[in-house]
Amino acid sequence: MLTLFSRQSSSRCCDGLSRRSFLRVGGLGLGGLSLPGLLRAESELGRGKSQKALILVYLPGGPPHQDMYDLKMDAPSEVRGPFKPIATNVPGIQISEHLPRMAKMADKLTFIRSVVGAKDRHESFQCVTGRLSNNAPPGGWPEIGSVVSKLKGGAPAVPGYVNLSQQMKHTPYNQGRPSFLGVAHAPFMPLERGKEDMSLNGVTLERLDDRRGLLSAFDNFRRETDASGTMAGIDVFRQQAYGILTSSQLVDALDLSKESPKIRERYGKGTAKIQGDAAPRLNEQFLLARRLVEAGVRVVTLSYSFWDWHGQNFKNAQENLPDFDQAISALVEDLHERGMDKDVTVLAWGEFGRTPRVNDKGGRDHWPAVSCALLAGGGMQNGQVIGATDRLGAEASDRPVHFQEIFATLYNNLGINPHTSTVSDFSGRPHYLVDNEFQSIKELA
């Protein structure tokens, strides 16, 4: 298949490039909207030297804070539930009995019990942007991975932003929105639409070279006739895309067979079965995330299981918490053993918390008033609890932590000042990465 877009076409992509600037040869998409677009980010504002990275674990549906990190033993039985707290290796910190691995390494973790600013909406938007979906500029707020792709790029032959999530039935759970930053900064999705980019589709390297030569011939002609100059530099991005397809760096990072059985066993398997209308409970995503940041990816996001437990809350928790405990603990331990804990930040959270009172179906309903988050790595002062809720776990009673404070912390850990760095929307208007009233979490400095 060879597709050429007409020179007269007025259709433009989100980043302002006309469709005639792209050419697709066969199934490779060289010069299309996938790999080369992602790589274009590397040239804008320069690619940083640092290997600072973020692994963001999204728990779709909203996990129950009072059954994980903030048990309320003095509350009535219809609030506290049947779970018991256990001591951690940090004196004075207790968490759920179903998180024993985290308890043994709490000195490497930070439990935030007082996250505020959520909305009662089943969507990933706030968890990956730090913003509310309303009152946004045209195109919406970009995800943190897209912002980092824009400002930092990735390592050579590796995209800056990778999303390991599979497409979920409840569409608002899904990530992958670069918004006004354009498709050049959309995430590479190796487990979903990115599969096309990771496969030569039966084309040998010799045929790939032939196609590259044909593509070059067309581009030389087009460059001579393109008075606007939009073709300038396209060869650079295409060459990098060709490099990804023909080098082993990214493919190797996604190949778990290259890991030792001992490491894979540490992370566990979970289950490939789709949970509810969200995601499978795949522990190996956590290992893939570590391998990707080790290969130079700046931001990796993944979606884990389904946490919207309006019924059978405690049964579901007993099934999910042990797998989550194993996966997140293995990831943090792995990062420390590899000396990556100072550079890689780990964040795990959902869109809101759950009601204090258990309903008549044995579940907990939506509760945006307060929720929880787990942080690790990033060179932060971990081994602490930040914030507290009242006796029922209903409101933040001490040190409320806003979503944007967490995002300010993430950006700073990535070497980006969220109050001086900007990204511009379609109209050219610059936007700071977080509102000025929100600073990084001082307790973690």
UniProtKB/TrEMBL annotation:
It holds the Pfam family DUF1501. InterPro entries: Alkaline_phosphatase_core_sf (IPR017850), DUF1501 (IPR010869), TAT_signal (IPR006311). It comes from the Bacteria. This is DUF1501 domain-containing protein. It comes from Prosthecobacter vanneervenii. The lineage of its organism: Bacteria, Pseudomonadati, Verrucomicrobiota, Verrucomicrobiia, Verrucomicrobiales.
